[in-house]
Amino acid sequence: MGKIKTSISLYSLQNEYLNGRMSLDDIFQFLKDNKIDGVEILPDQMIPGAPEPDEETLAHWHELVDKYHQELSCTDVFLNTNLYDNRTLTLKEDIKLMKKEIELAHKMGFKTIRMISMTPPEVVKPILPLAEKYGITLTLELHAGLSWGIPETERYLELMKEIDSPYLGITVDTGIFCRRIPRVMSEYWKQVTGVSQETIDFCNSFFDKGEDVARYGFHPTPEFEAGVAKYGKTEADKIYITYAQGYENKPLSIMDDYLKYIKHFHFKLYEMTEEGQEYSIDYPEILQYLHDKGYDGYVSTEYEGNRFVLPGNPMIEKEQVIAHQEMLRRELKKVQGE
């Protein structure tokens, strides 16, 4: 039976870092204080000069890892194919950038890379030998709105199965398993942009039926289009309906045929409630499923509620992350018996 370990994506603390309230040193102390197993980082955010930082920056990174005995769960790569205003990157440019990211992951000590959703599958074969050389696993993120059933994602999944390398897989983002739309998102849109409660209720009604807005956004029915026309009265209402497509309500069983390829998880966090659970996602159910299936790897808190803090309210990244990690440890103790 595998063991599930906790991690934090430092994306969760981006506001603290970018506004100077926490340094990378402070973040490592935070991880230690809260007994978090692994760390996941976005080098573009917190490693100056990435993907080619200087030796001093790398030395400081390793000093922190050694000082705090921190496990390294994953490093996140954003292949910015829209780097230029007038064109997308060529395949040759994509490959060159990805190889630099693999070199950086190796220098930092990471063994898993999360490639952003929609990374062109054509880059995989040319870069895989370098990843294999360093013992690094490449994973494509299956993100809500861009998961199973999306043509670009399916092309990667077909290629992954065809190659069938232990160094190629997927990172699953649990925004795919929302059982209701995040309350903080809806409240933000309602108070800040003026979205109507009727529009919010319209989108929530799909989740109440065990469905989601995403499936109808990609494959609209006449009934759905009629609802959009009725409830999308203002520009804000229309944008909200589109935004709601970023939360899927898929069954956990969709992972059954892909378990051998799942190397990492983003455990999405929108809002921890006073009852100690995530508002939109049933993590006890997910952890029980992963335990029963023998998943052996990290589950990484990724807080996105920070983008929905209402004007005038304090940022609560640290508090939400701590509450989420406490919940994960509590639920893991139940399923793993530790």
TrEMBL record:
Top-level lineage group: Bacteria
Gene3D superfamilies (alphabetical): Divalent-metal-dependent TIM barrel enzymes
The UniProt record lists the keyword S-adenosyl-L-methionine: no
Keyword tags: Isomerase
Gene Ontology MF terms in the entry: isomerase activity
Domain Xylose isomerase-like TIM barrel: 28-175
Database matches in InterPro entries: IolE/XylAMocC-like, Xyl_isomerase-like_sf, Xyl_isomerase-like_TIM-brl
Cited Pfam families: AP_endonuc_2
Database matches in PANTHER family: BLR5974 PROTEIN, HYDROXYPYRUVATE ISOMERASE
Protein name: Xylose isomerase
UniProt organism field: Ligilactobacillus agilis
Organism ancestry: Bacteria, Bacillati, Bacillota, Bacilli, Lactobacillales
